[in-house]
Design goal:
It contains two helices and nine strands. The protein has 230 residues and is an alpha+beta fold. The radius of gyration is 63 Å and the shape is rod-shaped.
Length: 230
């Protein structure tokens, strides 16, 4: 028998792990029982693997032992077990036999220190992935629908005032038109006449038309009156 501790010491609130080996000398053995005991007795050891039957119990059975058989065991220490300063695990093997013999046993000791730290990692120690900055979204959906005021000058034709012809240009223009026949219905207002002159001429023409109309109506009334008397 042999028992070996996986660590020399643990803290309260942790678990001590052990390796138990069972072997035979000059032959093989069947249905070998292995029992665990701990000191202090308040701690409860158990097998975790390697048993034919009895895993997660304090004793197990191995159906056949010829080559060394490895078993795994553990003892969990409570975080409030302040009286526990060390663990001593004892493994004892036995077989059914009529021969008088002393069952082999082996022990291993693990020291127990203060309780394990339960402090959680501070938020500053947490490493968060760095995100690349992208375009800032438009939070005002309605504002994006507005159309800014623009310049509407391009929607209308450009109007450029004509330059006032000089005296020399008017004389040359009139000289070139002396032999030309006047256009029927053409106005006598010159090209360079001010706008108010054309308005006065129009009013005069309107006044003459009214006078002619009134005169014509008067002549008709007189004619009718003479005809009635005769």
């Amino acid at each position: 028998m042999s028992v070996q501790s996986s660590q020399s010491s643990i803290k309260r609130g942790q678990t001590a792990f052990y390796t138990v080996q069972v072997s035979t000398k000059d032959g093989s053995a069947s249905n070998v029982s292995v029992a665990l005991a701990a000191q202090p007795s308040t701690e409860k050891p158990e097998f975790t693997s390697g048993c034919t039957t009895g895993d997660f119990k304090a004793s197990c059975t191995v159906s056949s032992v010829k080559a060394p058989v490895t078993l795994k065991a553990r003892i969990a220490v409570a975080s409030n077990a302040s009286s526990v300063s060390s663990l001593k695990l004892t493994a004892t093997a036995s077989v059914a036999t009529t021969v008088k013999w002393t069952p082999p046993a082996a022990t291993a000791t693990t020291s127990v220190t203060g309780a394990a730290s339960s402090a959680k990692a501070s938020p500053s120690a947490t490493h968060l992935p760095t995100l690349a900055l992208g375009p800032i979204p438009n939070l005002n959906a309605e504002a994006s629908l507005l159309i800014g005021a623009g310049n509407a000058a391009g929607l209308f034709p450009a109007i450029t005032p004509s330059a006032t012809p000089s005296t020399g240009q008017v004389i040359r223009s009139q000289a070139g038109r002396q032999n030309a026949d006047p256009v029927a219905g053409a106005s006598t207002v010159s090209y360079g006449a001010p706008v108010y002159t054309a308005q006065v001429v129009g009013l005069i023409a309107l006044g003459l038309a009214i006078i002619l109309t009134v005169t014509r109506l008067s002549v008709r009334k007189r004619s009718r009156s003479r005809g009635a008397r005769s």
